[in-house]
Amino acid sequence: MAVWLAGRGLDVVAVDVSPAALAAGAELVTREQPPGRVRWVEADLDAGFPVEEGRYDVVVCQRFRDPALYPAMAAALAPGGLLAVTVLSEVGDAGGAFRAAPGELTAAFADLEVLAHGEGGGEAHLVARAPA
Ligand SMILES: C[S@@+](CC[C@H](N)C(=O)[O-])C[C@H]1O[C@@H](n2cnc3c(N)ncnc32)[C@H](O)[C@@H]1O
Predict the structure, then answer these.
(1) Is 18's C-beta closer than 6 angstroms to any atom of ligand 1?
(2) CB distance 85 to ligand 1 below 6 Å
(3) Which domains does the chain have, with CATH numbers?
(4) CB 115 within 8 Å of CB 58
């Protein structure tokens, strides 16, 4: 996702705890040479969201779920910034510790303008905009 965003000209901060995941991304950048830049940050998100508040035009979190991070993800958005989140969901699945409860994303990001939201087939997604 980081390289895809950089391919559209964005300067990206990509956070992951795995050096292997970061190295794979960096290799992709070398191959594709996107117009935007990617800064790779090795960090454990269980310890918090290591980015500045109010700074980012886009915040993307795909298939990593930690409800404790939801407030920091919203706070990282610049005015009018876009948030895109995809998590595993209990909706359409058997449930479990790593899956979002029904309505979790819309409740967590109620202060944002929801542009798209869906739950089903074991997955939930939300796209929302911060107030301008
Ligand atoms: C299911 S993969 C999703 C990867 C990518 N976002 C995608 O959609 O293809 C989950 C990612 O979260 C990372 N991850 C897991 N626990 C983490 C943590 N505590 N802090 C930071 N990254 C973590 C893993 O290393 C892995 O790259």
Answers:
(1) yes
(2) no
(3) 1-44 (no CATH), 54-132 (3.40.50.150)
(4) no
